[in-house]
Amino acid sequence: MADNHHDDHDHGPLQLQYQPALPITIGKLCLWLFLSTEIMFFAALIGTYIVLRWGAPANTWPAPTDVHVEEWIGATNTFVLIFSSFTIVAALEAARANLAARAKTFLFATFILGCVFLGFKAYEYKSKFAHGIYPWGSPRSRMYDKADVYYVAAVRARLGDLRLDLDSRKVLDGTRIDLEKKKALDDQLAEVGDAEHDRIVARLMGKDKIEWTADDSQTLEAALEKAKDDLADKGGWSEHLDEELAEVLRLQGALVRWTEREVALHPNGEKAEAMMMTAGYLVYPLHDFEEYVTSYVEQERIENKDRLADAVKVVAAVEKQLLDLADDAPERAAMVQQLTVAQDEVQLIKSRQELLSDLPEPHGGLNEEHHFLKLPMFIPSGNMWASSYFLLTGFHALHVIVGLIIFALALPLRLDPARGGFLEATGLYWHFVDLVWIFLFPLLYLF
Amino acid sequence: MSDHDDSNADAHDAEHDESHVGHHGSMKLFVTVFIALIVLTTISFTAANSPLMNNPMVGWSVMMAISCAKAMLVISFFMHMLWEANWKFVLTIPASMMSVFLVLMLVPDVGLRTHRYSESRWRYASEPQEEHVAGEVHIEVSPDVDGDESDDEDEGEE
Amino acid sequence: MSAIPADSQRTETPRMSLSAFFTTYVFSKDHKIIGLQFLFSTLLWFLVGGLLALGIRWQLAFPWQDMPVIGNMLFAAEGGQISPEFYTTLFTMHATVMIFFVIIPILAGAFGNYLIPLMIGADDMAFPTLNMLSYWFMWPAFMLIGSSFFTPPYGAGGGWTSYPPLSVMTGAAPGSELAQTLWLLGITCVGVSSMMGSVNYLTTIIQMRAPGMTMFRLPLTIWAMFITALLQAFALPVLTAAGFMQVADRLLGTGFFIPEHLVVNNSIPASGGGQPLLWQHLFWFYSHPAVYIMILPAMGMVSDIISCFARKPVYGYKPMVYSISGIAGLGFIVWGHHMFVSGMNPVLGMTFMVATMMIALPSAVKTFNWLGTIWGGKVEFTTPMLFALSFVSMFIIGGLSGIFMAATPVDIFIHDTYFIVAHFHYVLFAGTAMAVFGAIYFWFPKMFGRMMNDTIGKVHFALTFIFLNGTFFTMHILGVVGFPRRLADPYPYKTFEHLQPMNEFMTYCAIAMVAVQILFVVNFIYSIFYGPRCGRNPWGANSLEWMAPSPPGHGNFDFQPVVYRGPYEYGSPEVDTDNYPQTQPPPPKDVPPTSEH
User: Fold this and answer.
1) What's CA C453's distance to the chain center, in Å?
2) Which residues contact B48 (CB under 8 A, 6 or more apart)?
3) Which CA distances in Å does C508 have to A99, A125, C420, C501?
4) How far is C275 from chain B (nearest CA, A)?
5) Residues C299 and C253 reside in one and the same domain
6) Which helix H or strand E contains C448, and what residues bound it?
7) Distance from the A152 Cα atom to the nearest Cα atom in chain C, whole angstroms
8) Which in C11, C31, C341, C485 has the greatest CB count within 10 A?
9) Which of residues 118-157 of A touch C (CB under 8 A)?
10) Can you tell me whether residue C561 is helix, strand or coil?
11) Residues on chain A touching B67 (C-beta within 8 angstroms)
12) How many CA atoms lie within 13 A of A425 on its CB side?
């Protein structure tokens, strides 16, 4: 033991004798001590998850299905890790029996299984990100813990942005030729310099009268291609701009306007809460709220029918009054105002009816139906869930990566009995990684 | 660290031959353990989708028991703890006890934190849900929404 | 014992090439060089921490007055004054530097590294490369904390405890932007370093003791280092995990420590649902044991010094060992006493109060055993002995004030006043730092092969002892009046107005105390080069390190140490000499050494 500490120093003739307390190598002892510290590390992480989860407001913690945690992936990964634990122990057995080739096969299998585990993990993370679930809280992630005014405001902001974006793209779509022409000319302007300035401005202003040269067309085509690419980078060259815009407008009208109106009418009232929750349910249907929302919506439907009839009556009455009124009557302006309000009310109730008609089969929510929407979602305790999920699986995955690096370093070596100690230590570490997963699997996927 | 373990282990093997009393277990045993682990995982998976989860506490207890069983299998056989000397207890039991103690001590403050939420705090907390699942329209934002407005801090602290 | 060859290691130095210099003195894997690297680094940081403390003292004695000479240099923007934000940074950095860069590394890193292999009869640590890494992992920490201090506009100001939500809300305070993140990463690096060190120490002590060196023949220093390493190994990962969570809260926007309904600058942070108390629990789960990490090795070293200069065996060796273990074990279950006023569940408070008071028992055992060791001894009042004796007396004061605060009702009154500041300065400065001075005087001959000047040492001791009491004892009085800690200027409150003269007195004492350390620095540096040469065992001690050459070469021992008895056999009737070294074979009638298993 003493002679291999300083590879490059003369140690003198003396090799000291020791009296070890334990019948194991120092490497193995050190590894076990390290694993003990790892036990404490994961105890802190898992303990944090446990107390945060069971301390969250009663039963709000999202069910695995609510956050796209798929049990089969977890189960498969458990199988993969257990299998890799078996292969590494088999590699150790083979190495001790001096079957180097066999040991290498098993070690390689372990390495591959570790990679498979990480592959599944990456797939899982990707699907979370695709749904707007990030470790961090909104507005960067799209999760809100509560369907309240902040949530509705975020939905409104997102729909507003979308509309603005779609509008501008529509305009761009219609006039891009003109724009590109201008851009090409501007580019030319820059190239030619001040001397040519006036002539080019003239060309720009009176573009219809100008005869295009071959050069001009080429420049324009190139610029167009580039603009198309730019637009693709910005969010895609939509073939269905009109439909998307119509959908956003419909949602803006229905979802946001009526929610906001109810909130304004009954701040903190039960009606507003119910409305906001229904809005949240439409965007991202949570299993636990289905019963509640459907019953609420049923009630709303009945009420809406009556309300619509009333509103139509009001519109008719106001229209009738308006017809009777003289053109220059002083109350006419107020009356027109009244008509607009009444018509708005009709529109509002209609859009609400339309929206609520989708409810019984929510199709995984609006975000799933229209991928471009990316509306904020409402998942109670979703942020705490995401924080702890990504923390736990992230640190576990880091340990897997470290294990894989060690395996990769060991693969070129000859795995004979002399490497037994090394393989054993690596194996112990890998089994510990497996152990952590054995507890994470039920805690994160099944509970 | 690993390269070090390696070189030290070599030298040590030569010195203390009795430290590696080579063959504990056999491939046959390890295959059996492996199959047992797979079976336990399947049971755990099945339990999660079974009527046991009607009472979550029962389902969770079953799953945690299975996890502990799996952990013991891995520790005992794959990590060779079954065949180690008594030092295994010295190294593992204090850490396990301390981790359990840490989690237990977190329970009153963090695990039960919502017991001490004030009314104004409940307004911004995630929605308590049991009021909704009953299918009634009435929603309470807090357990005692009609309570006294004035005591909005730490009312749970007797 | 084999014949002892002449000490020849020192003569190699002149012919050393540059690369050899680097592998020998910079990236050395030799535990002695690493120990000295730790020693020099921590002593430099000790100076930095002391100067930071003087900044704090200046502000408290002369609030908002220009600092003489350096004021305009440091705080040109504020016209030579300390700003409140800078004051916050000052006390945060003073604590951070003193705890993480001075006391923990000087005990575990410097003395642990230097003494463990020597005292157990090993040629080096079990994992020299790991040992080297544990030192070099301190450097990222040095740089991160250092850059945190200089990050504009202000350095980290969350206090060394870094309590959320202040510390996790970026923008909550001037120093909680980038500076706080750098601070957290720095602490994580210290954690990694300590973890590597502790695992290494444990392995070394368990597996690499010389033949005959059973566990109950280990010097108490080694026992203390062993228990300290255990504390670090088991408690530190929790802080590391919590630190990562806090970094995630700050950088990624997770919400582990951010409660719902937290309003900062009129806006509600995006994520929430966590619990600030979670941080306090996880933090103190490490940092309370860390308090013992900061005192146990000092206790061990003091035991060795006292026994050596009282020329008597340590009174009650096994009770000493058990009480170290008892303090460590209890130390794990008392962290809640830092949180009595945090809004912690009162049930927990009661539990933690009782457990804390129980620590007084093993502490008292140790104190009485030290007194028992001195009782009736042939006490030699050398410099190390004086420091060790002052450790014992100061530890009694610091320990007793600790019991005050263990009681919840009392703690509620004196929490976050200068009483707690007095308490931990008595334990950490008057206790540990004095023990460290003693240990430096004691083991300096072994480290450099030369003696330090005893007269200057005694003057250094006497002045330090006087001025430290002038500085820190007064704090008790301030604390009982209710003088708050961490407040840049308490004097606008009428209650505290009349305390300013007392603060001025403390500041003069503090300045004098720092100035007195010049004696130590001069003595230390001068003695390295020009001190009188000493032999292997200048103090006539028993333990193994004194049997090796001074300074020991590579491989430490030039003979195979075999241990026949415990390290404290002074004045043994079996031999004529005063000391009875562990390696000296017993007279023929004795039985050969027993092995532990």
Assistant:
1) 25
2) A71, A442, A445, A446, A447, B59, B63
3) 75, 60, 21, 11
4) 6
5) no
6) helix C434-448
7) 14
8) C31
9) 135-141, 145, 150
10) coil
11) 438-439, 441-442
12) 27
- Please indicate, yes or no, whether residues C392 and C509 belong to a single structural domain of this protein: yes
Q: Kindly state whether residues C376 and C456 are assigned to the same domain.
A: yes
If DSSP codes are grouped into helix, strand and coil, which group holds residue C560?
A: coil
Q: What are phi and psi of A382, to 5 degrees?
A: -60, -35
Range of the domain at C61: 29-72+82-259
Task: Give the best residue of A1, A4, A5 to mutate against chain C (max C CB count within 10 A).
Answer: A5
Distance CA C448, CA B57 (A): 65
Which token pair is C285? 């789960």
Residue C568 domain-assigned (yes or no)? no
What CATH number should be reported for the domain holding residue C379?
1.20.210.10
Please check whether residues C224 and C303 belong to one and the same domain: no
Per-position pLDDT tens, chain C of length 597: 344 444 444 444 455 677 777 777 778 889 999 999 999 999 999 999 999 999 999 999 988 887 776 766 666 666 667 888 889 999 999 999 999 999 999 999 999 999 999 999 999 999 999 999 999 999 999 999 999 998 887 888 888 999 988 888 877 776 677 899 999 999 999 999 999 999 999 999 999 999 999 999 999 999 999 999 999 999 999 999 999 999 998 888 888 998 877 777 666 666 677 889 999 999 999 999 999 999 999 999 999 999 999 999 999 999 999 999 999 999 999 999 999 998 888 888 888 999 999 999 999 999 999 999 999 999 999 999 999 999 999 999 999 999 989 999 999 999 999 999 999 999 999 999 999 999 999 999 999 999 999 999 999 999 999 999 999 999 999 999 999 999 989 999 998 999 999 999 999 999 999 999 999 999 999 999 999 999 899 999 999 999 999 899 888 998 899 999 999 999 888 888 888 999 988 887 655 555 545
Q: Is residue B28 part of a domain?
A: no
Residue B125 lies in a domain: no
Check CB contact under 8 Å for A26 and B6: no
Query: CA torsion, points C343, C348, C353, C355, in degrees to nearest 10?
Result: -150
Judging contacts by C-beta atoms under 8 Å, the chain B residues touching residue A75 are 41, 45
- Largest Cα span, chain A: 121
Domain that holds residue B110: 86-115
| Complex-level ipTM | 0.91
C314 shares a domain with C192: no
* Cα-based distances in Å from C171 to A16, A213, C156: 58, 59, 12
d(CA A379, CA A281): 9
List all residues 6 or more positions away from A136 whose beta carbon is below 8 Å from its beta carbon: A383, A386, A387, C252, C253, C254, C270, C271
Q: Residue C493 falls within a domain, yes or no?
A: yes
Q: Is residue B92 part of a domain?
A: yes
Which stretches within A236-331 are classed as H helix? 241-251, 258-265, 270-283, 290-324
Whether the CB-CB separation of C258 and C233 falls below 8 Å is answered with no
Total domains present in chain B = 1
Is C361 among the domain residues? yes
- Measured CA to CA, the distance from residue C513 to residue C463 in angstroms comes to 7
Dig out the tokens for C382 from the structure.
């050398």
C23: in domain: no
Q: Is residue B150 part of a domain?
A: no
Are the beta carbons of C335 and C310 closer than 8 angstroms?
Answer: no
| Chain A hits for C557, Cβ within 8 Å | 14, 16
Chains with ≥3 CB–CB distances under 8 Å to A: B, C
How many residues in total does chain C contain?
597
Residues C350 and C329: their CA atoms lie apart, in Å, by 18
pLDDT digits (tens, 9 = 90+) for C266-290: 666 666 778 899 999 999 999 999 9
